[in-house]
Amino acid sequence: MITFQDYNTLVVIIGATLLGLAAGLVGTFLLLRKRSLLSDAISHATLPGIALAFIVMSLFLGNGKNLIGLIAGAAVFSILGTASVIFIQKYTRLKDDAALGIVLSVFFGFGIALMGLATRMETGNAAGLSSFIYGKTASMLFFDAMLIALTALGTIIFCILFFKEFALICFDEDYAATQGWPVTRLDFLMMGLVVVVTVIGLQAVGLILVVALLIIPAAAARFWTFRLRHMLWLSGVFGALSGMFGSGISALMANLPAGAVIVLTASAIFLFSMTFGSARGILKLVIERFKLRKRILTENLLRYLYEWYDSVHTASNDGSFPIESQVQGPSVDDVLTQRSWSSKQVLRTIRSLTASKSLIIDAGNRLRFTDQGIQAAKDMVRKHRLWEAYLISHADVATGMVDLSADRIEHVLDEEIIRKLEGLFPGVRPKELPKSPHALKTSGGAV
Fold it and tell me: Average of pLDDT values for 225-240?
């Protein structure tokens, strides 16, 4: 059990938590800019900077393990890596993935070569440099935690100050440019924050896994909300929880590398969010799709029954039918033979409509509307005919081709769209059922 009485454990947990917070905030904008793999290229580009800084400091200072110098070297090369990716994207015809692959492999290969030279140097001991590749969260020092804390604080401040600007270039870069915003400088500022968090994160989880802290919390947050502000802070919270619980679990169980456990914790949060997220979660999408399919079947059956009655009986001015005529409604077997639905779907939908008191099945196994059912069917037919009329008179769709388009869209027409459609046809009064566009010729926008 963690009691936070152990100083080293407390430092590690605080440092990992703050690193996750900073990475989650910056990673949100990185994800929305569709530059998720750029963080991978940046992290791999730091390796030659670390190795070169070690070599230079060993030759001229006699000590190549100065942390500030190593971080400075990593920062310089991460900036070079970022600039290389942007340059290739802007001035060549190569796709983004090709630019990222080139920069990542070239810089990482260069770094491996320099690491080989560093290990053979007589002027310095290169032992421990591999921690920048795999991370060394468990041996984090107070100075490392303070550095991460300052980085997290700076990240929060910049995200608050430039929230509007970052949001604008994430969603519509071209619009931001036409409005006079310095898109290029804002982009470099955003990438600068990514570089800083990446370089600081090398000490904790290493260059291979730091990309996970930048991307996974932001991806998880997106399953819970459609609002950027909420997504930003959720991502920060998820990153902080990943760092806190990951480092805590690693402290409880021996021989578990903290960096890997942090990433696995973030992955667990992502899987939970992907499954149960209230905005885009799989479970929510499955439920919504099931409800939509059920609603489509219900509305299609109501419209079919109404149109069947309309072809046999004459509706009154309000679109309803005489009660005595409804006795001669279609049978369940008629519905099954006339539509391409499966018998299971039709029977289930009929049971649902009878349970909701929209339909009645009489002694002859024929379907009959209730007053509630007539109103629901009339509303459905009204939406269908208004959309058909719009397609014929305003979209120049042939009369024989509008049925399929109307069938697809009528189920998602809300009241606001219905009011706009009514405004396009002055002859149609609110709540009045227009005649079928197939039965008359539209002209001048009148139905």
Answer: 93
